[in-house]
Amino acid sequence: MSRKAAAELIEPTLTTTTNRLTGAVLRAQSGFFWVKTEQGVLECRLRGRLKKERQATDLVVIGDQVEVTPVGNGQGAIEAVLPRRSRLARRAAGPRGAYKEDVIVANVDQVLLVFACAKPEFTPRMLDRYLVICEHSELPVIIVATKIDLVGREMAEAMFKPYEQIGYPVAYTSIVSGEGIAELRSQLAGKISVVTGKSGVGKSSLLNAIQPGLNLRTGEVSERLTKGRHTTTVAELIPLDMPGGGYVADTPGIREIGLWNLPAADLAWCFREFRPFLRDCYFAGCTHLHEPHCAVRAAVERGEITAARYDSYTRLMNNEDTPS
Q1: Closest CA to 113 of 6, 249, 228, 238
Q2: In terms of C-beta density within 10 A (0-12 exposed, 13-18 middle, 19 or more buried), how is residue 233 classed?
Q3: Which of 191, 233, 222 is nearest to 120 (CA)?
Q4: First and final CA of the chain: distance in angstroms?
Q5: How far apart are CA 80 and CA 83, in angstroms?
Q6: pLDDT band at 316 (very low <50, low <70, confident <90, very high)
Q7: Residues whose CB falls within 8 Å of the CB of residue 219, separated by 6 or more in sequence, listed in order
Q8: Are 114 and 203 in contact (CB under 8 A)?
Q9: pTM as predicted
Q10: pLDDT in tens, 207-266
Q11: Which secondary-structure segment (H or E) carries 19?
């Protein structure tokens, strides 16, 4: 994405509607939205008619482009939400046991999937779920391995090598030694990025290292549960002070992530190493679970697809629980 395009996502403009401004949602909390407009950042709420619209997704999230009407004293009313060009979303429980789409952030250029090498333990199956969601949404991904100082570079690379082999870039980082921080910072310049991953992996600490002075609140990992305490409670787009600018979305930690609106027939395509074999199965509509002459399973047997990744695929096809 060009620097100009990145700026256009955030820089506000006047709309043709009298008194309305177009701006980007930088922060969302408890029904309040902070929107960057040409009149500055306005604290906004939704118009009543928008609240009445029943949807299977979030009405407004950070990154959304919205039309607002200023009402004075630095406040405004959100009148309309413009179409999203991209989104990172998961499945969330809705009323009466139904499900709805939980959009984490809209209009992003890339997703940084942050996973620790230790404390908490690396969970490949959860990473696979994130990757499926990003592939289905056609969002570019950078896998960020944190806390490499706890295990050493060689072991860290062994953990993430299967993902590098199928084409995912992996950034190896340590906020203790500073390794990998400068390289990762350069990949954020001029882009709108979302930083997400399991709680306790060091997302906020990583952002503090990328841009000193952010002073995002960080927390310790529970030694008893080995699960991170949630330290980010508000979703927010944070401007980056670097050549080319850019924004990052710091999001609350996610312990579980469910797939939203993903047809079972499309799941195999979301495993990018499966794609060369999908047209070679004997049966049309092959699920790659039990059918004879399945090209995907044959690739697993030959070692061209790892058994671990195939296991993740079968668990998702069978709707098995996500590891937390």
Answers
A1: 249
A2: exposed
A3: 222
A4: 33
A5: 10
A6: very high
A7: 200, 228, 229, 230, 231
A8: yes
A9: 0.80
A10: 889 988 665 544 443 343 334 443 445 778 888 888 888 888 866 544 455 666 678 889
A11: none
